[in-house]
Amino acid sequence: MVDNQAVAQHFEPEERAFVSQATDWLQTVSNEYRLVLTHFLNPRERHILSILIGDRTDIKFESFGIFDRAEKERVVIAPEFIEIEQPDFEETLLQISFPKKFLELRHKDLLGAFLSAGIDRAVFGDILLDKEKGIAQVAVERRQEFFIEQEILQIGKVSANWQSVSFDQALIKEDEGEEEFLLVPSLRLDAVIASCFNLSRTQVKEMIESGFVAVNWSKSLKTNRTIHLHDVISVRKKGRISLQSLAGHSKSDKIKAVFQIIHR
């Protein structure tokens, strides 16, 4: 049996509950020879899962989030001899239309409506809007479809008449920013933000302590938190950062890193 506590100690404290859960998923697949379907996972969680599987040949996993380059995706973990197919992900694409000339609908309006209805963030994925077409789409777990259609009837001033649409009608995600190669003094949260947005460490410290920074969708108040591959950092009014790759150290001992950066 895998010692979950021993495995979890190699990750950040905030990640250890997920590491323990993911380890249990792998044990279930290994012991019971069946598929395990997760909720929607963020990029860092999927990366952790790939680390835990490592070079094992008896287990595999695939992810799917309906949208091309989806940020949040459900994952199917399976014994290597079982073929994973799209229906295994049990997802539905829900869509609403709104009169674009008269009403404005924002991402935060949709997110707020879902959370206010008591829907856990883990059971729905990406939210996309096309303001030119006047439509919004949400990837959801199939078992949540009826509840959403019955409970979320109004989003701001927009009447929510949900309909399920085929995956080939999924909206195309807008530009996800640019990849930038940077030399950073360390992978501390404050150092990364300062380098990516050209801010002073003092400015960043104030932003973190004011609750303006989230790592992997959870507020982070620790300036010295270490950033890992595929972590997603959100900074209010500045944008988002994701660590894509590392390439060793420079002659001045700075860390060579590639970040995906979206400037607000």
> Count the helices. How many?
7
Percent helix, as a range, is 25-40%
How can the largest sheet be summarized?
6 strands, antiparallel
Give the topology string: H per helix, E per strand: HHEHEEEHEEHEEEEHHEEEEE
Q: Which class of secondary structure composition applies to the elements? A: alpha+beta
Stated plainly, the CATH topology of the largest domain is called Structural Genomics Hypothetical 15.5 Kd Protein In mrcA-pckA Intergenic Region, Chain A
CA-CA gap between termini: 47 Å
Mean pLDDT across all amino acids? 93
| CATH classification class of the largest domain | Alpha Beta
> Outline, from the CA principal axes?
globular
| CATH superfamily heading of the largest domain | RNA-binding S4 domain
Proper CATH architecture of the largest domain: Roll
Low-pLDDT stretches: none
Count of DSSP strands: 15
Return Rg in Å.
20 Å
How many domains make up the coordinates? 3
Strand order of the largest sheet: 10-15-14-13-11-12
Pfam families: S4, YlmH_1st, YlmH_RBD
Keywords: RNA-binding
Protein name: RNA-binding protein YlmH, contains S4-like domain
Organism: Fructobacillus durionis
Identify the notable features of this structure and list them briefly.
264 residues; Structural Genomics Hypothetical 15.5 Kd Protein In mrcA-pckA Intergenic Region, Chain A; four-stranded antiparallel beta sheet; alpha+beta; Ribosomal Protein S8, Chain: A, domain 1; single chain; 15 strands; Alpha-Beta Plaits; 3 domains; 26% helix; six-stranded antiparallel beta sheet; 31% strand
